[in-house]
Amino acid sequence: MMKILEHLATQYPVITVLGPRQSGKTTLVRVAFPDHEYVSLEEPDRRDFAHTDPRHFLSIYGKRVILDEVQRVPELLSYIQTLIDIDGAPGRFILTGSSNLLLLEKVTQTLAGRVALMTLLPFSLSELSQAGMAEDDLDESLFKGFYPRIYDRNLEPRQWYANYVTTFLERDVRNVLKIADLERFQLFLRMCAARSGQLLNLSAIGNGCGIAHNTARSWMSVLEAIYIIYPLKPHFINFNKRLVKAPKLYFLDPGLLCYLLEIDSPRDLRIHANRGAIFETWVVSELLKSCLNLGLPPRLYFWRDYTGHEVDVVAGSHPNLTPIEIKSGSTVTKDFFRGLDYWRGLSGVSPEECWLIYGGNQDQKRSHGTVVGWKSIGTLADHLNRRGELDG
């Protein structure tokens, strides 16, 4: 991603890097742009200065500057627009933000045509492998999650995620929604975690925590905006079947998901009822990272008809679609290919374009499709990116 950022900074006056808190945005932009002055708008005095006198603030810091957590002072964007209309030198402003609910709308409206947008999620498995920090065991990897701070400082995952939920997630939710009953929101969050990998049913989740449907929708929107969850949309290709139209709910980090499900160790994860859903959640997040790290909007979907036939992920657009099945088991069985075989019968796609990723380690070529172990997920991502199927 760093090379892409550096290239974009030669073309656009404003670069905005979005992503969850603690995903490494600050480190990335400071390393990529060492000659830019750095200003954190989390610091109360700097934030107050920017609020009360934005023109003067930008006259001091507005030559070549990184403005970190710019969602704290979104009104700065209008003043930045004025400055770059006068002097639109490439790479002048590097912005980061941890919430896209209002910030993304403000950025696209105010800085349309002047800004390049990137999204940074926590580490991918490929990044950890290249750094020599990847876990060798699948359950260890899922339990630990992929937030950089855990690896940089060798922190105990459960304690770190507990602090993350309290200090960052709940604070961001309070800032946006002004929620007074945090216990009810925590229940909502845990109920969402229990449904990762399932069709999104806001009414059922709302009823389970005693909140109205509209409240559940609002809270879910905020979780999406602060990069905690991702709604995977269904693909509506017409195979003369009635298709499910609700999205599937996924969390963006398996470690946070394990914490919310009160899984205390990798050993507990191995026998947990949600292990398959946690593995599927991780695979979807890895595929998202593989395109977002290239600056590409994802074209990832799932497919399911009302008779229960399903393909976990469909990448690309018609007619160049790649079906992907996800299984957490470590031994490949014939049943693993049931959804892919059904898809092939409807679509006519060749077995070479059908993929299965599973919880084992052996990559295989089968008559039903290409099989890759969990450590080789980068092979699948590279294949999709080469075909241009993850980009919009």
Please name the defining characteristics of this protein.
globular, alpha/beta, 392 residues, 16% strand, 6-stranded mixed beta sheet, Rossmann fold, 14 strands, 44% helix
Q: Could you write a compact summary of the structure shown?
A:
The protein has 392 residues and is of the alpha/beta class.
Strand order of the largest sheet: 9-10-11-12-14-13
- Category from helices, strands and their pairing: alpha/beta
Using only CA atoms, what is the Rg? 22 Å
Q: Name the poorly predicted regions.
A: none
Q: For the report, how would you describe the main beta sheet? A: 6 strands, mixed
**Helical stretch tally:** 18
Question: What distance lies between the first and last C-alpha atoms, to the nearest angstrom?
Answer: 17 Å
The fraction of residues assigned to DSSP E strands is 15-25%
Helix proportion of residues, in percent?
40-55%
What average pLDDT do the residues reach?
90
Write down how many β-strands occur, each being a DSSP E stretch of 2 or more residues.
Answer: 14
**Looking at the structure, what is the overall shape?**
globular
